[in-house]
Every structure is written in C-alpha cells, then in structure tokens.
Design goal:
Chain lengths: 121, 317, 202
Amino acid sequence: MSSSVLICDDSNLARKQVLRSLPESLSSTAQLATNGEEALELLSQQNFDLLFLDLTMPVVDGIGVLEGIKAAELSVNVFVISADVQPEMQSKVMQLGAKAFLRKPVQKELLHHHLNEYGLL
Amino acid sequence: MSANVCEMIAEQINTGILVLDLELTIVEWNRYLQVHANKHSNEVLGQSVFTVFPELPRRWFERKLASVIQLNTPNFCSWEQRHHLFELPHTRPISTDSHFMAQNCTFLPIEKQGKLTHICILIEDATDVCHYQSKLNSALEQLAKANKIDGLTQVFNRKHWEECLAKEFGRARRYQHELALIMFDLDRFKLLNDSYGHQCGDLVLIETANITKSLLRICDQFGRYGGEEFAVILPETDLDGALDVAERIRETLEHSVIKFQGEDIRFSTSVGVATLSADNQRYEDLISSADKALYDAKSTGRNKVCAARQELKLLVN
Amino acid sequence: MNQLILTADQQDCLQELINVAMGQASDQLARYLDTFVHLKVPSIEQVSSEHLSQSLHQEEQAVAVVSQGFFGYEGIRGEALLVYQPKDSDRLADLLGYEPDELSVEEQIIDLSSILTTTFLNVFASQIDNQMSYSAPRLLASSQSSISEHIEQQQFTWDAALKVKITYQVTDYSFNCDMILLIPSAAIINITTVIDRILEAF
C-alpha cells in the first residue's frame, strides 16, 4: 500500500525538487500546498502519512504548521526541508515533533535514507 | 596553465606571494617577497609567520585568517584602512613620507581535493596610489578652504559667512536661543583709496580684519560681507552684549594707527547691531535689520554704533 | 532602457536559489560569529537603472556603503552594495570578534561586508556550478548622497539591477543591513540562461 504525501513549500522549484527526489510510488499521488495555511487545511480534511515542510513561508510558516499539527494532535510524519540550517533551528523543529531535518537543496539519497528509516518506502 | 608556467610567473610578478598552512607556518614565498623582506628562504620557510614578520598585529591577523579558514572565502585588507601589514621598503623612497610600502593585501583560501589546506596572501604595492591620494586629499582640502575664505583678509567670504548665519539662525529659532548680528563699514573708504591708493586701502582692510578677529570669541563667526563691509555673527548674545562688542570694535579701530609708506593712517567705522526677534522669519531679515542700523549710524554722523530701531523701542520701554 | 522581466518561473527559481544561499551563508556566519542569525525571506526586486536611485531613496540615511565587485564563469558578474543604517554600526567589532581598539569602525564595516558578500555569493555560485572571484571591498564616501552619486556614476555600465534586500538580524546585537546586487543586463541574461537550464532539469 502506498503512503500519501503532502509537500508544502512556497517555491514551485522547491516543490518540484522534492517531487523529483521521491520514488514514483509516492510522487504520483503527492499533493501540494504553497503555504502553511493551505497545508493545515488539507491536513484537517484528509489523512497524510508524510508532510514535507518548508520553514520560511508567507501566511503561516513552517513553525506555525508544526504547532498547528501538535495542537490538533494529527499523526502525520513531518520532514522539514529548510534553507535555514542553523543548529538552533534544527533543534527547535525537532522539539516541535519533526521526524527529520533536511537541508535545501534536498539530496535524493539522504531523503531515501530517512524514508527507509520510517518504513515509508 | 602548466605548473611550470605558473611557477615562472609567480617568481617574476610584482606582487608578494606568501603561502601559509593552517598553523600559520610559512610554506612558500615568491622572489618579490624575498628581495623586499631581504631574508633568506632557509630562515623563513617552516617558520611561524609571526616569527618572520614580528610587526604583524597578531590577534587581528589570526581573526582575519580565521574568517578565511572557517568561511572558505577570500578576505581583504586595504592601505586606506591599514597603511601596511608587512614592513617592506618601497620603490619611491624619496617622494613619499612613509617608511614602508603601502599595501593592498588579499587573503585567499587554497583547497586541495575539496579541503582547505593553505592560505595564500597576496601583497600589492599601493605606495603610488597612496601617495597620489594624499596629494589629492590635501588639494581638495585647500580647495574647500579657498571656497570659504576671502583671499585678501583671510576671514570667511560672504558665501560661507551667509551659510554660517543660516545655520545659526535656524538653531537659534529652533531652541529659542539669543542671536546677535554686527555689521560694520569703514567710513570714507573711497576717500582713503583715492588719497593713498588701493594698496593702502587693502592694507587697512587686512588690519581691520586682524584687529576685529582679536576682539571676538571663538564661537563668533566673522566674515567680509563685501567691499569695505564686515559682519559678525554672535551666538547666544543679547542686545547689550552685542552693543558692548560693537562699541569695543569701533573704539579699537578708531584708535588704531596703520603705517603706510611712512605715513600714519587713521580711520573710523560705523556699526549696526541687530538681534533675533520674533518677526525675523528668515536670516535675511536679520541682515537687513543690521544693515538699516548701519545706515542710521552713517547718516547720523559716522564713527558710532546704532542698534536696529525696533530694538531701540524695546530699550526705551 | 532595457527593462528585463523574469518570468514567474524564473523569478521563483532565483528566489529559491537565493533562499538557499542565504540559509547556508547565515549558518556559516552564525558559526563564525558564534551567535544565532535570524533569517527573513529576502525580497528580490528587479529595478531599472532609472528607478534604482528612487528605490534607494530610503537608504539615503545610510552612514556607510561598501561596494565589492564579483565575477564568475558564464558572464555572471556585478557589484554588491552593503548599506548600513546609523544604528547598525555600533558594536560591530564585538560581533566580529575583534577588540574595539584593534580596528577602526571603517575597517569593521568593510570586514563584515566582505564576509556577508562572499559567503552569500559563494553558496549562490556553487548551486549553479559556478565559482566567484571578488575585487577588494571599498568604502564609498560616507556622505549622505553617496549612494545616489555612486549609482549615477555607474549608469552607463548597467541597465537593470537585482535588488536583493537581505536582513541579517543577529541575536544579542540587533543589527541588520541591506545587500543590493547591481547586475548589468548582459549578466542578467546570462543568469536567466543558467536558471532556464535548472528549470529544464525539472
């Protein structure tokens, strides 16, 4: 059974980069959100196994999404994919429940390694 | 480029090349640096850069190189901020005042197989640029000064004096401080010129400026307003204070004797005084008040001080 | 005047390249300066040379402007202007890890500018498989009109500029400055070629 994926990033290029790094089984059904508000709305309507989340976004940023997920007690696995890679930011998102922190531009091998770790491949 | 060609260029280029490892030990240097530092390679290579060049500001230098090593980016040091890092002689020993070569230094990270292993320091002679820049700067300074000073009397010229007045006027109005203006004019100056010649007139103008200057405070701004007319800005001064100064100027000038071709030249001045009042909207209003008072002094007998008329009314009250 | 318009896709791609460069540069800076650097999404604006002076009007308060040229392969080159506001220049020596008496305020500003420019552009270049060289940074006369004067002198060498407003906020120091990249139109065309190549790959 394939997992359902949501990709949330305000950059079209960044969304495509993630899509292209995913195996066909995940990318073919992946849904897209262009900011945190859209992502939270989609998350409240349907179940996702996996959320790829950017941090610096307009309207609601990545931190806001993580807080929203926590508040609504949603069970989605969050992989943060961020341009801001300072250690303080990494520990902040991990504390907020993210499962992995990947630096931009996303590396396919590293992404697959994390997917394997959570049995999502 | 082949390694051989690179080596030949490095040996002949007119730029110092110094290569350090990450412990800041000198591992290579080129001929330019050898001849300028006047040291043998065998007493330099393998030594700490601080041993060979003890003049380097150690902490600063270490921090500078730390940025190159940690950020893997070039860094720079210009003669404009730091005249030189390395004490090297230059090739213009006579026409420059500095002992050492002015330098532009570039610090470059050197990578081998993706790993930073060395730092290359390029040292360029900027003595010529430095020399011409300082000449240019002093010329510009002189120009700026010439723009403000009256050539004959060496006090402020009218343009600069008016700019000063505009500033003082604005400040006094903003903070409701006092401000006084003195304008004075040599009496019968034309007659003096006609009888003794223009050289004598010029001498009187110069002496008038010198004598008046010696009677003023540092904060007072003194200029030649035109022809034989002078003007003084007195910040933080009320009418009584300004009348005191005006009277002192008039009296001192009246008793001054100027020697010209064996003759004693005596002269007098008429002085107008005005102070800032509520209806002075522009600084030009203050000038015209003082000018009117000066005219009063002239028309009522010369060699005297008059205050602007509205002020007189106030005094009477 | 050459008014160059990036397509929405090109603009998006450039924004992402700059975001990533910003992020990595800030990470390096934070390590070097030993403090946390807070990032904001940088704004990118294309400005024609006539409008740049106008758009820089708010920067007229600047106390210092540092200029540094950069050039890479494939005709990518330009000039970076780092613009500092009066309140920013107070504790730079502290931030840079120097003793205050070791270097003048001018030198501090130049040092910081060079670090900001080169770290940012190095990462930017590596993303597009390029490599940058830099000219020595130069402090422009710190008179109030210096930016517009400088821009006017440069009128003939560039037609359009990419104004990337970067806000570096540093905890403990509350300091920020703007980076403006002036890129001649020929170089912008070269950048769009590179961007198109990246876009094609997706």
